[in-house]
Amino acid sequence: MAAKGLKGIAPVPTANDFLDIVLSKTQRKTPTEIHKNFKISRIRSFYMRKVKFCQDCFDEKLGAILTEFPILDASPLKNLHPFISSLMNVLYDKNHYKLALGQLNTARHLLDSVAKDYLRLLKFGDSLYRCKQLKKAALGR
User: Fold this and answer.
1) What per-residue confidence (pLDDT) applies to 31?
2) 134 within 8 A of 121, measured Cβ to Cβ
3) Percentage of the chain lying above the pLDDT 70 cut
4) Which of 4, 28, 58, 102 is deepest in the core (most CB within 10 A)?
5) Distance of CA 35 to CAs 52, 63, 135, Å?
6) Does residue 64 contact residue 108 with C-beta atoms inside 8 Å?
């Protein structure tokens, strides 16, 4: 991180842009057509794949944000010059900064648990309609 400096940090999208990015990527990169005459196992796997892919995209994007931002602590892995660290503490308040990064990490873990719960529910979906509604609920949360 120190080699790139603070200019190496990519801009963080707004919440709506973030959702649009991930959901459009899910729509583009996964199959989009399912028919009611398919076997239920194929229908389940279709929707499970969509939910898992969306969860992976969220995890990837949030992980990238968390790794791009520098750690301000004076840990043995100092990845920032002490001057820049103290400057960021004055400008952005170290506690608020650490709290925001912690909340992003918590959001990432919550997304993982929501996806895991809905994948578990999708395994027992007994119709195309129920699987579709579960997928819709999972991506909506």
Assistant:
1) 93
2) yes
3) 91
4) 58
5) 20, 35, 15
6) no
Long-range contacts, 125-134 (Cβ 8 Å, 24+)? 125/40, 125/43, 125/44, 125/47, 126/40, 127/40, 128/34, 128/36, 128/38, 128/40, 128/43, 131/43, 131/44, 131/46, 131/47, 132/47, 134/47
- As a whole number of angstroms, the distance between CA 133 and CA 130 comes to 5
CA distance 116 to 112: 6
Does the structure show a pLDDT above 70 at 2? no
Looking at the predicted structure, is the pLDDT value of residue 1 above 50?
no
Structure tokens at 37: 């005459």
Q: Mind giving me the DSSP string for 22-81?
A: HHHHHHHHS-----TTS-HHHHHHHHHHHHHHHHHHHHHHHHHHHHHSPP-S--TT--S-
Task: For residue 16, count CB atoms less than 10 angstroms from its CB and return exposed for 0-12, middle for 13-18, buried for 19 or more.
Answer: exposed
pLDDT digits (tens, 9 = 90+) for 106-136: 999 999 999 999 999 999 999 999 999 999 9
DSSP 7: G
